[in-house]
Amino acid sequence: MLISVCGTKGGTGKTFTAINIAATLSKEKGRKIALAELTSQARGDAAYFLDLNFERSVDNLFKFIEHFDEDMLRGFLVSHSSGIDLLSVPLSRELVHADIKILSALKEIYPAVVLDFCGAQMTQYPKILDISDIILLVINPDVPSVKRARADSDALVALHFSPEKIKAVIN
User: Fold this and answer.
1) What is the spatial distance between Cα 146 and Cα 141, in angstroms, rounded to a whole number?
2) Helix boundaries (H) for the chain
3) Cβ atoms within 10 A of the Cβ of 6, count?
4) Is 67 strand, coil or helix?
5) Mean pLDDT of the chain
6) CA 102 – CA 104 distance, rounded (Å)
7) What CA–CA distance (Å, rounded) separates 38 from 96?
8) How confident is the model over 2-46, as pLDDT tens digits?
């Protein structure tokens, strides 16, 4: 199962929500859960929230993207005491194929994968959302956030995503 957590605008609590979903799933299932964050930063927000540092650059994984295996992939994840295994993956149009391959592999390894996904750019990466089982839109109870959520939801439906796949979370 892949749950993509998307913010409708900056500051909605998307990363906080993704971390808590992953930690709760880990506790409920009694197993580790993967939290993948697609980010344009060298170290994403989830790593800061969880106070984790990466020993290996995920850039090295991309060098072997056509030949990596489960053990190699696990070497790039960092474990947290909450039961989360975190992977911070660069997001760019050039790497979407590799990102999808990594996320698909995580889905085979873990009982659930939570994706901390970009907010405003989510409709620019429909192939990533295609492999998601659930798309969560994190919304704040304010007019700009609700307005943006409506626009995002309409855009996702226009891209042929089932409305049943799209869920709203008010934070």
Assistant:
1) 7
2) 14-29, 45-49, 58-63, 70-74, 96-109, 126-130, 143-158
3) 28
4) coil
5) 87
6) 5
7) 10
8) 999 998 888 889 999 999 999 999 999 999 999 998 876 656 788
Q: Which amino acid, one-letter code, is at 66?
A: E
Lookup: tokens for 47: 């790593």
121 band by pLDDT with thresholds 50, 70 and 90: low
Calculate what percentage of the chain has a pLDDT beyond 90: 49
Among the listed residues 48, 21, 53, the one whose alpha carbon sits nearest the alpha carbon of residue 34: 21
For the stretch 144-158, pLDDT in tens is 989 988 998 898 999
**Threshold 0.85, pTM exceeds:** yes
> How buried is residue 164: exposed, middle or buried, by Cβ count under 10 Å (0-12/13-18/19+)?
exposed
C-alpha to C-alpha distance for 116 and 166, rounded to whole angstroms: 15
Phi–psi pair at 9, nearest 5 degrees: -165, 170
> What pLDDT does residue 127 have?
85
**Alpha-carbon span 139 to 85, nearest angstrom:** 26
Q: Are 116 and 18 in contact (CB under 8 A)?
A: yes
By the 8 A CB rule, do 137 and 167 touch? Answer: yes
What does DSSP assign to residue 161?
A: -
